[in-house]
Write a sequence for this structure.
């Protein structure tokens, strides 16, 4: 037990840590946005699309949800260049993370669509609402409220998952930490500091999501 | 040009590495499950101090990346004067992490058991631990089974992160083979198939258990 903590060398690199944190949030936001679009398209296809499309979406969801993000990342990063698609490690990271989140978003959004009782849609029909009105007022808005908690916690998981992309040296917080570890050799201290930064990011995001939900869903359920 | 082609030897190497993925997952499920049970017990305990301690633990492990937790355990061994070793580091980090998630799963199912059961046990003169063991846990375990199986899928996938501290399990074996064959499509494709073969049965089992618990009703939306 004669380990001496030295945090000094780390805080001298605080601007790099801030850069890493910003990059992590950018990666999370970009991949979540793309993943959400994939998820929305997939959920609609899986709920209302033709059979063959439902099957394709189901296969996509099962493959992604039953293989590790790291393997998906390696596949994208190493395979696509052979097929003639040139990707930087940042682009590969965003692509893999988006495809990954998309599969989970499909399942969450599909559950949201299915959470609407069939009777509500029948009631709306018998009240003479148009198809568009039904989709908007009876399906989308109540479903959004139902899926909001699951979607936001998936966003948080995505934020934690971005640390994996340091494996292909994409620039984000964990990669910054790995570089600092090589420069300063204060590995234990560095990962303690990084853990605290992730903790703050996660807590800040979940607080923000709770505030947003208070504004968005202020009417009675 | 590559040094080697992907052939039966390479496939065998991947399958042998799969042993370590499975072993690590089993260790994590057992260790994490025990820790989770303990944490869930603390989370519903009558003492506020124990409840807060357990919830702080769970909060930390659920709000930081598993990779960082792994690095902390790996490099933290220097703190107690030992040389970093991937196997114990991965086993410890994954158990600590899975314990937090199992703790929340078990707490949820313990709290889902009706309050009257607690009151009835108290009326019968059972103490806290006896109530948990004899009355609450048997009922809660039925509820916690589907999410537990679901989380086991997560654990199998998470073991791949151990490759980043140099533990030669399935993912690490894949990157090694990819380096010598440079056939990423077939190498990572094969590895994905192996992971899929491990995870999919568990996923299906989890879904089956969940449907059985919910009475198996699912209605299609007609628009």
């Amino acid at each position: 037990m004669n380990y001496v903590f030295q945090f000094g060398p780390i805080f001298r690199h605080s601007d790099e840590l801030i850069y890493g944190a910003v990059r992590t949030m950018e990666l999370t936001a970009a991949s979540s946005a793309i993943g959400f679009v994939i998820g929305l398209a997939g959920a609609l296809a899986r709920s209302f699309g033709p059979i063959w499309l439902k099957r394709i979406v189901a296969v996509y969801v099962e493959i992604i949800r039953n293989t590790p993000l790291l393997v998906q990342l390696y596949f994208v990063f190493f395979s696509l260049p052979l097929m003639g698609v040139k990707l930087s490690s940042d682009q590969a990271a965003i692509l893999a993370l988006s495809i990954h989140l998309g599969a989970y978003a499909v399942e969450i959004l599909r559950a949201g669509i299915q959470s609407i009782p069939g009777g509500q849609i029948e009631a709306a029909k018998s009240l003479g609402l148009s198809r568009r009105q039904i989709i908007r007022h009876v399906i989308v808005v109540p479903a959004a409220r139902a899926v909001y908690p699951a979607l936001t916690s998936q966003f948080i998981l995505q934020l934690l998952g971005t640390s994996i992309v340091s494996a292909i040296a994409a620039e984000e917080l964990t990669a910054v930490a790995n570089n600092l570890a090589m420069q300063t050799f204060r590995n234990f201290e560095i990962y303690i500091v990084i853990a605290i930064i992730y903790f703050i990011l996660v807590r800040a995001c979940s607080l923000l999501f709770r505030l947003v939900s208070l504004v968005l869903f202020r009417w009675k359920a | 040009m590559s040094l080697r082609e992907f052939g039966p030897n390479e496939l065998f190497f991947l399958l042998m590495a799969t042993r370590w993925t499975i072993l690590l997952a089993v260790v994590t499920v057992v260790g994490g499950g025990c820790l989770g049970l303990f944490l869930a017990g603390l989370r519903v305990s009558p003492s506020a101090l124990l409840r807060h301690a357990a919830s702080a633990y769970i909060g930390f492990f659920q709000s930081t990346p598993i990779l960082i937790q792994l690095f902390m355990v790996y490099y933290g061994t220097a703190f107690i004067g030992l040389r970093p070793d991937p196997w114990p580091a991965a086993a410890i980090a994954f158990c600590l992490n899975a314990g937090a998630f199992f703790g929340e799963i078990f707490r949820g199912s313990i709290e889902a058991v009706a309050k009257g059961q607690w009151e009835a046990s108290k009326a019968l003169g059972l103490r806290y631990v006896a109530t948990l063991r004899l009355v609450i846990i048997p009922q809660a375990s039925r509820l916690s089974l589907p999410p537990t199986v679901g989380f086991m899928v997560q654990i199998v996938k998470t073991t791949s992160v151990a490759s980043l501290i140099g533990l030669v399990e399935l993912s690490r074996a894949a990157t090694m083979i990819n380096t010598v064959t440079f056939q990423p499509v077939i190498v990572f494709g094969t590895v994905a198939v192996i992971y899929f073969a491990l995870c999919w049965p568990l996923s299906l089992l989890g879904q089956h258990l969940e449907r059985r618990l919910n009475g198996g009703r699912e209605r299609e939306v007609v628009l």
Remarks:
- The interface with chain A takes residues 60, 63-69, 71-72, 75-76, 78-81, 153, 157-161, 163-164, 171, 174-175, 178, 184-185, 188-189, 191-192, 195-196, 199-200, 203, 218-223 of chain B (CB under 8 Å).
